[in-house]
Amino acid sequence: MAQNIFKGLGIALITPFTEAGEVDYKALKRLVEYQIDNGADFFCILATTGEVPCLSREEKDKITDLVKEVNKGRLPILKYCGGNNTAAVVEEIKSTDWSGIDGILSICPYYNKPSQEGLYQHFKAISKVSPLPLVLYNVPGRTSVNLKPETLLRLVKDCDNIVGVKEASGSLEQVDEIIKGKPQRFDVISGDDALTFPMIASGAAGVISVIGNALPKEFSRMLRLEFKGEYEPARKIHHKFTELYKLLFVDGNPAGVKALLNDMGMIENVLRLPLVPTRIETKDKMAEILKGLRI
């Protein structure tokens, strides 16, 4: 029976682009090393923050190979594979080379708006063919469907390789319900930077973080303090980030964190359409907060 290894600070890794709009593999290599050197516990690659809908198959393969090559097995890698056509997701899982990858992140089907039974059957079909542990991704704000706790716990009971959920429903009540009913081998992982502090306090095992791309050292320190029960110093770090949380997402993700990384001199501030860079006023506000955090 599979156990969850994706704990602590997970990085929802961005895809840097050059000014010409090509994948910036040199910047990506620097980012991976930066995360490893500054407190990251695992990587989550080629998901929403990585702008995966706008990447070609060839680019996704090259990014995967580069991350594996730079990582050299130092941190676990969770790779996204999901969609709203169950048969296509099943076929992609069966035809992909998963060597060097430690788990699969798969999102609730979007646009189709399946019932709870449809969600159950979708993930059960994926579970049957997956050669790796599965982390489900519940993000109703993007998919228009909510994977309810009773459906999730039914899946966990029936599928030995479902080891976690990236929970981004925004409901702490739902998080509590899952944690109260889950087996020990299964973990809740925060999918929302702003709710990570209360979710860890409720028993979540970690976060798949956007802000961690830019500030892994500071964010991982908050998690580590909290895991040790040192809530007051952890809360202080959480409160330092409060305004930044809002600004990061006001113009969409990953526009905010890319602007932050650009201010840090790590990447070009380039996204692929239909996404565009964050507004100048947002970028300036984040730059001011960044100065304060560094002080």
Features of this protein?
295 residues, alpha/beta, 47% helix
Describe the structure.
Helix 1 runs parallel beside helix 2 (57-71), helix 8 (196-202) packs parallel to helix 9 and helix 11 (255-263) crosses helix 12 (280-294). By secondary structure, this protein is of the alpha/beta class. It contains twelve helices and eight strands. The mean pLDDT is 96. Strand 7 (187-190), helix 8 and strand 8 form a beta-alpha-beta unit. It has helices at residues 25-37, 57-71, 86-95, 116-129, 140-143, 149-158, 172-181, 196-202, 216-227, 231-250, 255-263, 280-294; strands spanning 8-12, 42-45, 77-80, 103-107, 134-138, 162-167, 187-190, 206-209. The longest helix has 20 residues, at 231-250. Strands 1-2-3-4-5-6-7-8 form an eight-stranded parallel beta barrel, surrounded by five helices.
Tell me briefly what this model is.
This protein is an alpha/beta fold. It is built from twelve helices and eight strands. It is globular, with a radius of gyration of 18 Å.
